[in-house]
């Protein structure tokens, strides 16, 4: 990943956090990197105890929380 890509991704994240600062549930949003993707996720679930990433994402999808894919380089 080049420096230019890094800068572009940081700008994308900053813009997304400005556009969507809060989840539908009222908790703040935060960018989260998974394997090769970066998501804007609700922070209400970030300390989910004992959950795998897959379960965490399934919980988000079913609970009405805001979630946006920011960077998908694949
Ligand atoms: Zn939420």
Q: What would you say this structure looks like, in words?
A:
- With 74 residues, the chain is an alpha+beta fold.
- The chain has one domain.
- The chain has helices spanning 3-19, 53-62; strands at residues 29-33, 38-42, 67-71.
- A three-stranded antiparallel β-sheet has the order 1-2-3, covered by helices on one side.
- The longest helix is centred in the first third of the chain and has 17 residues, at 3-19.
- 7% of the residues are buried.
- The model has no long low-confidence stretch (mean pLDDT 82).
- Zinc ion binds at residues 23, 25, 27, 42, 44, 65.
Total of domains: 1
Q: Uncertain regions: pLDDT < 50 for 5+ in a row?
A: none
Radius of gyration, whole Å: 13 Å
Number of strands: 3
Number of helices: 2
Mean pLDDT: 82
What's the end-to-end separation, in Å? 13 Å
The major beta sheet can be summarized as:
3 strands, antiparallel
Question: What strand line-up does the widest sheet have?
Answer: 1-2-3
What is the share of helical residues? 25-40%
Shape: flat
Identify the bound ligands: zinc ion
Strand content: 15-25%
Structural class: alpha+beta
H-E string: HEEHE
Quick take:
Helix content is 36%, strand content 20%.
Descriptive keywords:
20% strand, alpha+beta, 74 residues, binds zinc ion, 36% helix, three-stranded antiparallel β-sheet, flat
Secondary-structure topology with pairs:
Elements: H1 3-19, E1 29-33, E2 38-42, H2 53-62, E3 67-71
Antiparallel strand pairs: 1-2, 2-3
The structure holds zinc ion.
Zinc ion (ZN) binds next to loops.
